[in-house]
Amino acid sequence: MVATPKPCFSTEPVARHLNPVQSTAVTHMNLNTFFAALAMAAIIASASAQEIKRLDPAANKLVPGNAKLERLVTGFNKWTEGPVWTGSGSLFFAEIPANNIVRWTPSGASVFIHPSGYSGSQPYGGPEPGSNGMTLDPGGRLTVAGHARRNVWRLETLDPAGQITVLADLYQGKRLSSPNDLVYKSDGSLYFTDPPYGLRTQGDQDKEKELKVNGVYRIPNAARQAAGAPPDRQHLQLLIQDLPRPNGIAFSPDEKTLYVSDSGRRIWMRYSVNADGSVGNGSLLLDTQGDKAPGGPDGIKVDTEGNLYGAAPGGVWIISPAGKHLVTIQVPEVVANLAWGDRDAKTLFITASTSVYKIRLGVRGVMP
């Protein structure tokens, strides 16, 4: 695992990348008319892409009237994922097809770790060879859903060549499929989802898929696992096994509810959390199947008031704890995941197809 040279990522403003005007022969119009039309097209594209749909009066507290979506960096390979903000003022996120973890600071973006997922000597042969979701443990250590690496691992220091500790790789002697996203509970246990998206065919019939279920798992005492120690395979717990494609995962602020997005059925589910860390029967929080906009339920986060923020059709949806759709923050690309950041935890960072965005909001987010 080594750092690679800084790639050429673009930090141009949002409007430069939205719905470009088709080339027109300037000889057919006055230059002033041409440039006026060009400017107007850019304004319209920018406004359309940054529209915030307020569906409930509660939206005004959550999203200030001057809130504006800003593109931080672009030019990535098809799919950015798994963002997490660190105490050092950096945003880490996965560029899955390129098998990279990227580090962004206000001075720019550079590859932090390559390979982040699959590390074999032969070409992977699937669309998603990299790692996926990331979070921090109570000690601030970067914890990674290995995706094509087929495990969950922790980096002991924020050094790309630092020691790696594998937290989970097998369940009842069978390899995990491709851990996707993860969240710590305050007691140090780690919960993660395991759909097959990191396998070569991404399907349930993939010849390398060993587990029949696409599960949600819990690693008790994950934060207390000693650096370099092998996984505690005997105590890995399968909590949920009836979701077609469990994906994003988050706790309510009081940790009494576990939220899971199912990208197969395009829904968000909620589960009551028992005293022993297990979960009760799930219930539907919200269904997006009737919305035909690009994208669907994927990564999720919560704010300190209990509202859920999720990758969704058309961008990011803000959902009340009761399951009411309050706001849509429209994003000009398909959204994968999100993370709270900055010192006041009021900036929402958004990873999408080829770019990373941010927007300042009116409430604090729950950060790892």
Task: Please describe what this structure looks like.
This protein is mainly beta. It has one domain: 6 Propeller (Neuraminidase). Helix content is about 5%, strand content about 35%. It is built from two helices and 27 strands. The protein has helices at about 30-50, 60; strands spanning about 50-55, 70-75, 80-85, 90-95, 100-105, 110-115, 135, 140-145, 150-155, 165-170, 170, 175, 180-185, 190-195, 215-220, 235-240, 245-250, 255-260, 265-275, 280-285, 300, 310, 315-320, 325-330, 335-340, 345-350, 355-360. The longest helix has 19 residues, at about 30-50. The protein is globular and about 50 Å long. It starts with about 30 loop residues before the first helix and ends in an 8-residue tail after the last strand.
Features:
4-stranded antiparallel beta sheet, 6% helix, mainly beta, globular, 368 residues, 36% strand, 5-stranded antiparallel beta sheet, Neuraminidase, 2 helices
Quick structural overview:
The protein is built from two helices and 27 strands.
Please report which band the strand proportion falls in: under 5%, 5-15%, 15-25%, 25-35%, 35-45% or over 45%: 35-45%
Total count of helical runs of at least 4 residues:
2
Q: Which strand order does the major sheet show?
A: 1-24-23-22-21
Q: Can you tell me the CATH class? A: Mainly Beta
Taking the alpha carbons of the first and last residues, their distance comes to: 25 Å
